[in-house]
Amino acid sequence: MLSIFEILQKNYSKESVFQYAKMGFLEIEQSDILNWKIIVRNGELNKINLKKILFMNLKNKQEIEYYNELRKKIIEPIENLKQKIRKGKNSKRNNISNI
Question: How far apart are CA 17 and CA 22, in angstroms?
Answer without folding.
Answer: 9
